[in-house]
Amino acid sequence: MAARVLLNSVQRLIVGKAFVTRNFSSETRTVTLIPGDGIGPEISESVKTIFAAAQAPIAWEPVDVTPVKGPDGLFAIPQKAIDSVHKNKIGLKGPLATPIGKGHRSLNLALRKEFNLYANVRPCKSIEGYKTPYDDVDIVTIRENTEGEYSGIEHVIVQGVVQSIKLITKEASIRVAEFAFDYAKSNQRSTVTAVHKANIMRMSDGLFLRCCRHVAEKNTDIKFNEIYLDTVCLNMVQDPTQFDVLVMPNLYGDILSDLCAGLIGGLGVTPSGNIGADGAAIFESVHGTAPDIAGEDKANPTALLLSAIMMLRHMGFGDYACRIEKACFDTIREGNVLTGDLGGKSTCSEFTNEICRKVEAT
Amino acid sequence: MSFSRNLGKLLSWQVNNEFSRYTYSYSSNFTHEAYGGRHTVTLLPGDGVGPELIGHVKEVIRFSGAPIDFETINLDADHGDEDYLSHAMLAIKRNGVALKAPIETKQGSKSKNVELRTKLDLFANIIHIKSIPGIATRHHDIDIHIIRENTEGEYSNLEHESVPGVVENLKIITAEKSTRIAKFAFDYAVKHNRRKVTAIHKANIMKLGDGLFLECCTNMSKLYPAIEFEGMIVDNCSMQMVSKPQQFDVMVMPNLYGNIIGNLGAGLIGGPGIVSGMNLGDQFAIFETGTRNSGRSIQGKNIANPAAMLLASSQMLDHLGLKDHGKLIRESVKKVISEEKIHTPDLGGQATTLQVVQAIVKDIKEKTQQWYTHFNH
Description:
The complex is a heterodimer.
Chain A: H1 2-15, E1 29-34, H2 40-54, E2 58-62, E3 68-69, E4 75-76, H3 79-88, E5 90-93, H4 107-115, E6 117-125, E7 138-144, E8 154-158, E9 161-169, H5 170-186, E10 191-196, H6 204-218, E11 223-228, H7 229-236, E12 245-248, H8 250-264, E13 271-276, E14 281-285, H9 302-315, H10 318-334, H11 348-361
Helix pairs in contact in A: 2-9, 2-11, 5-6, 9-10, 10-11
Chain B: H1 2-19, E1 39-44, H2 50-64, E2 68-72, H3 82-95, E3 97-100, H4 112-119, E4 124-130, E5 143-149, E6 159-163, E7 166-174, H5 175-191, E8 196-201, H6 209-221, E9 228-233, H7 234-243, E10 250-253, H8 255-269, E11 276-280, E12 285-289, H9 307-319, H10 323-339, H11 353-376
Parallel strand pairs in B: 1-2, 1-3, 3-12, 5-10, 8-9, 8-10
Antiparallel strand pairs in B: 4-5, 4-11, 6-7, 11-12
Helix pairs in contact in B: 2-11, 5-6, 7-8, 9-10, 10-11
């Protein structure tokens, strides 16, 4: 500790300005926690308990993102929540219910725009102990999250004719491609595959492809190939082992990431992370709020836990991540204490306690 | 008597005209007269493994004894300019029916496959995904009919670069075409005794575009109260397809989702080698493989699976009214795949294309022998 302080001051002297090093190894980091609705609060508590058992250096700052009515009459995220994420840069989010009614914008969309979350990452790995027809899946889907087919630009040209605009820009495509290669490097993945339909959408997907190729040339240690979207779908359901990291525009990413989630067992066991500019990142569980089992201690915290583990890796706490992940997978593999959706009869608390026990034992 | 017949014609003309904007009746408009008892069919061998497979189809049809003559048009990546395309379209219009393999698109030019479909207004693409016994798959008992809008949506080919580095691609959805494909899907469900139609969309994000498509389907469903109707979002659908595909019956969707879900479905039952597809319009029909792969990597190696193209040809024979011959070819293909299990490498076997075709021809010969002995007694 003293050595690091000395190093800091030496660096400041040399560089001549306040040089803040990012201390990844031992300082406690504060993370914004958005518990969410429905089963959100229970599974967030589970994650906090497990992290406490592992003595992970994370301090939680819970915020409420329930929309409040602004001066313009529109509902928006409270400023306190926004400031918290800006300060901490890292967030963990539970499932949010989008209220139905006028003036409510999708909260997920608002978060995405506010923090410029340009890449959505979903690592899908088959979970031993949770049987699906596919046993050997190990795919990461990286999806461009801000433009593409979900740009939201639509018009009714004349009555009965609608035009939706798919927007592809060089800037966003290069940004997500660079992230894909960085992710592949830092997670020891060997191949990045760009998924496209440039035979039909020649200019738009053509631009996306050219950007990916450009970034691939700068990262020659990672293999790069291109594949048509329909070929991916065809081959993915026959043999998922042929794919490693997939990078693609928004719509294809939406469909393929859900497809991969379906291969490993659904949204209840799939982690997800949204990476933004300036180092901001929000990790979330992508399942629904399950209002029918909320408060009954029946929820499965696996998705949120795996997302939190992703978060630990992103922050550089790899060893804590490995310990918690091993405990979680061991619990599921042993199959004694499983929640209802995984095929067992235990409660959420029992499942959480079992994982805590395993974490403390290591 | 001629008065009542003319009156009948007049009334039906009026009925047809009033609803003709939005109706499509599957078989009533379709009249292909056999000229001298024989039908002529346009063949488009295309690129990749297309020419070999179409060659095998010609041979099998010849052995089946179907009264078909072929007119082969060589429209492919090298012969693809406007003249060739109009020549091919004229041939298809003249004959009414075509059997086609995918045509590769050279860099920078428009896709001929898409142009043929839009110019001939082949608005419905139908793929039947059905589990085939004898092929090892992870899922069983699948029986899905995928009906895909074939002419608009994301394949409208309208793109522009507003400033360098910013490209816009227009996806067009119209009420007319959405209603047309919805009606086609429900009529198809009624005709084939299916109980449920699922519309696949992303109307939560593309509220106007896919919202319009979903609205047209919902409105059409009200005219068919006996058929169950539901809408499903495309990402949820792909998740369901890999976990519980047995829940789907008839699915209707816009162009791009049809491409995705169709390929997904084909992968679930064993791959692109065994699924056939048809493109139907008011006046013309083109039959092809279900997943439209050109198979360039296996060209000339004698390992392509001929089943998809042969099943497409049997659908074509059904369409022309030669149901006995269609059934003959289809059953022989199914027998070779399911019972004799002569599989090409894509199905996990070691057989060559030629071996599969020879087995099919052998079976056809045995069956047609029985026909002739029956007729001669």
